[in-house]
Design goal:
Spore Coat Polysaccharide Biosynthesis Protein SpsA, Chain A, alpha/beta, transmembrane helix, Nucleotide-diphossugar_trans
């Protein structure tokens, strides 16, 4: 017997996940049938280069509960897939999950139980990881703790995007106008009654991860500069430190000249000082540039993504498809949206 008759939407973000799509569908339908008879699975495909499209079309043709959003190009981040799927989700609750099967779909049953108990945000807490190097696992652990210390909102430790969120939270997230989206941070910022469900994250079922060390550093920067002012505060501390060193240096030079009667010298000292100050200036520009770059992206007001095709898209009441410019109009009105080229 199902837990509820409420509808649940599952948003699955994919890029080159041909080896995972069918298995993910099988696992999702098995667990969702235990939760509710009313559900939908929304795959978002970030312009995969493998045979994912063929598999998606076969799934969508055989099951109307499967919806597939194809982007017009690779928009670079799974965050846009989450945004697109969440925008189109019709459920009373929405689940976010990656398409690589590292997050276990079977946990959705536990998420749903917590949701029905009154929690509006239920997220998975990664207490361990299977696979990957020791250094990578250590880096993940360190990042979540450093980020929590730096962020101006309380972000759960070891919690990724995998979660279930209530329709109230979904509506809040959909109304947020920002383009540079880090959904687990936005989820924490939105608030609401939240709880975590611990689990051990699996290794990939099939395929290879596109998350290199460089990409992980990019993710860390995205999180920090989206939800922390600490780097800007550090610049002021560094400036005060340099001013203090300069003041001490002046005192030393005066002491050496008037007391020790030593002629101040130091060609090497000048060179080192120039490099030191130059390094601080470059670092300061880099930090400021990160924030300015994000402002630049926001003020352009471009749509988050462009939908090339939407399989099994729900029609409006008169049977006509949605206005192809509707999603773009959300962006023009200051809300999140996408353009379409259907």
């Amino acid at each position: 017997m199902a837990l509820t008759n409420k509808k649940i939407s599952v948003v699955v973000t994919c890029y080159n996940e041909a080896g995972n799509i069918q298995a993910m569908y099988d696992r999702l339908t098995a667990v969702l049938s235990k939760v509710t008879p009313y559900f939908e699975i929304i795959y978002t495909d970030n312009a995969s280069t493998d045979n994912s499209e063929e598999i998606f079309r076969k799934l969508a043709a055989g099951d109307p509960r499967v919806k597939v959003i194809f982007f017009s190009r690779n928009f670079g981040s799974s965050q846009f897939g989450l945004a697109a799927g969440t925008r189109e989700a019709k459920g009373d609750a929405v689940v976010w999950i990656d398409g690589d099967q590292q997050d276990q779909p079977e946990l959705i049953l536990e998420f749903a139980k917590k949701w029905l108990d009154g929690y509006q945000v239920v997220y998975g807490v990664r207490i361990g990881r299977r696979g990957g190097s020791f250094m990578r696992r250590l880096a993940y652990k360190a990042f979540y703790r450093v980020f929590r210390h730096m962020a101006y909102v309380e972000v759960p430790v070891d919690a990724g995007d995998f979660c279930l969120i209530d329709r109230k939270v979904v509506d809040v997230l959909n109304a947020m106008p920002e383009r540079d989206r880090y959904h687990r941070g936005l989820r924490a910022w939105a608030g609401f009654r939240s709880t975590g469900v611990p689990y051990v994250r699996d290794d990939r079922f099939a395929g290879e991860s596109s998350e290199s060390w460089t990409k992980n550093i990019w993710w860390a920067k995205k999180a920090v500069f989206s939800f922390s002012y600490r780097p800007l505060e550090w610049l002021s501390y560094i400036a005060l430190f340099v001013i203090g060193l300069t003041f001490l240096g002046v005192l030393w030079q005066l002491f050496a000249f008037f007391v020790l009667h030593a002629t101040p010298g130091g060609f090497i000292s000048i060179i080192l000082l120039v490099f030191f100050l130059g390094g601080i200036q470059l670092f300061s520009l880099a930090v400021i540039g990160e924030y300015v770059g994000r402002i630049f992206e926001e003020v352009k007001q471009r749509p988050l993504y462009i939908i090339k095709e939407f399989l099994n898209e729900e029609k409006k009441g008169n049977g006509a498809p949605k206005n192809p410019h509707e999603r773009l109009s959300f962006a023009q009105q200051g809300e999140m949206g996408s353009g379409t080229v259907d």
